[in-house]
Prior knowledge:
Elements: E1 8-9, E2 17-20, E3 47-49, E4 58-61, E5 64-69, E6 84-85, H1 92-97, E7 116-121, E8 127-128, E9 132-137, H2 143-157, E10 166-169, H3 186-195, E11 206-209, H4 217-220, H5 230-233, E12 239-241, H6 249-270, E13 274-277, E14 282-287, H7 292-311, E15 315-318, H8 321-324, H9 328-333, H10 338-357, H11 368-372, H12 378-385, E16 394-398, E17 410-414, H13 420-429, E18 434-439, E19 452-456, H14 459-464, E20 471-472, H15 474-477, H16 483-498, H17 504-507
Helix pairs in contact: 2-6, 3-13, 7-12, 7-16
Calcium ion is lined by residues 286-288, 320, 418, 420, 423.
Amino acid sequence: MPAATARYLKLNDKDNVAVVTNDGGLAAGSRFADGLELVEAVPQAHKVALVDIGKDQPIVRYGVPIGYAVDNIPRGSWVSERRMRMPEPPNLDALRAGLDAFVPYRKETTPLSGYTFEGYRNPDGSVGTRNLLAISTTVQCAAPLARIAAERIRAELLPRYPNVDGVIAIEHVYGCGVAIDAPDAHIPIRSLQNIAKNPNFGALPLLVSLGCEKLTPERFFPDGSIPESPLTRAGEPHVVSLQNESLDGFEGMIAAIMTAAEKRLALLNERRRETVPASELVLGLQCGGSDAFSGAAANPAVGIAADMIVRAGGTVFFSENTEVRDGIGQLLKKAASREVATGLLDAMAWYDAYLARGGADRSANTTPGNKKGGLNNIVEKSMGSIAKSGSMPISGVFGTGEKIPVGAKGLFFVATPASDIVCGPSQVAAGMNIMVFVTGRGTPYGLAEVPVIKVVTRSELAKRWHDLVDVNAGRIVTGESTIPETGEEIFQTILDVASGRKSKAEERGIHNYMAVFNPAPIT
Ligand code: CA
C-alpha cells in the first residue's frame, strides 16, 4: 500500500534526483506532495528521478554530475547503481595549470567568543581533554607485554591515582621486519612518534622496546624530543627494554614497566582540569559506514560545528584522501593560499600514484554497505564527505602521521587513507584532542586515546543503537530539527565531552587499534 507521507530530500536546485527519506523505503505508486509518483519501489536513502533523464545525460546531485545514465531513466524511477556510469576523476594536471588564475579564499565571519571547556594544560601549550598514561611500543614484539602491564596497572595501581582517566598500551604492527630506510618509511615512524605526543598523554611518554628491533628507542624519540618534566630532570629513563639483562623473566619485565608507570601516574595525578577557551580544541573529523544521508544532513551539521570552532579560534581538520578526491575542484576554491592549493593537489597526486601501484583507483573506496545505503559511487560519497569540513578557508595541508603545530588555528587537511582503522591513528598523531565521527550504516568505532563523538544520519539507527550514538542527525531528515540546530547540538556535545563527559563509545570501552599507515615495504 502506498505510504501517505512519501518524502524526499533534494539538496540543490540543479539536482534531477532526490533521496527517499521514509524509514523502510517506499512502494511503487507512492505519491509525493508535488505529485511525483514512483513507478517502482525505492529503498530508503536511495535516489528517485525527478524528471525523465535521457541516456548518457548527467545524473545531478549536490548540483554536480555524480554519474551518467546508462539508459533512459523515466521520472519516478529508482536511480540505482546499475543505471549510472561513473564520471572520470577531476584531472589534477589541468587543475594545477588552472592555479595561474588562483584567487585565495576569504570568508568574513563574526568571531565566536565566550565558549570554554575544562581541559588539562600541557607544557608544550597544547590542552588535553583526557588525562591518560600512554605506554608506547617501538615494535609489535613488545606489545603483548605492554598490554598485560597496562591491565595490571589499571587493576593494581590506578585506583590510587583517581585523577588519571586511564592507562593505554599503544599496540601497532610496525617496528621490525620493515624496510626502515625505504622512501615512505617516514610515514609510519612519524605516525608513532606523534601519537606518543598526543595532548591527552600529559607529555610523560613511556616506551616499551624489545631491544633488537629496527625502530630503536633512539629513533623513536630522538634527542630533545622528550618534553621537559620532573622525570627528565631527574634523569629517569623513558624506555623499558625487555631484553635488558637485569630483568628476570616475565614478572621482571612487567614489574619494570609498572615501576616506570607509577612514577608517571603520580605526576599525572597532580593535574587538574581548568577552564580554557574553546580555541584550545583540536577537532578531527571522520566518516565511516556512510549512507546517502551522511552528505545531506549529518555532514553539513558537522560542518556548522566545525565552522563554530574555527570562529572560536580553534583548530579543525578533515582527512580521507579518496573521499575528497572527486571534490578536489571544490576544495581548491576554499584554499586560503596558492601554497595550500598546491599542497592539496600534491596530496591527491601522491595518493593516486599509491593506489595505481596496487592496481586500484579511488573507485575501490565505496563499500557494499555504502551502496546499500544509497551511495552509488565515490563521486556521490565525496560530495557528501567534504560537507563536514564546513565553509572556512583551508589554511594548511599535512601528510599522514604529521603533527599540526601546537597553536596553528583554523581549518586544515590532513591527508590520510579513508579507512577508519588507518585514518584514526594519523588523526591522533595530528594532535586532535576530540573527534567527531559520522556514520550512516553504523559502526561502533572508538579510540582509547581520544574521545570519539558519534553522529548518526538516521533516526532508525539512533533508536536501535541508542547506547552507542551521541547525536542523532536523522532528526534533520525527518524535519524534527534543522541543520543549524543539529550543528549547535554537535558543538555543545564537543564542549561537554572535551570537559570530561564520557562519549558513548568511551562508556562502552570501545576502541580500535592503532593501525598506522605503512606504504613502505615489509621485509
Ligand atoms: Ca573513514
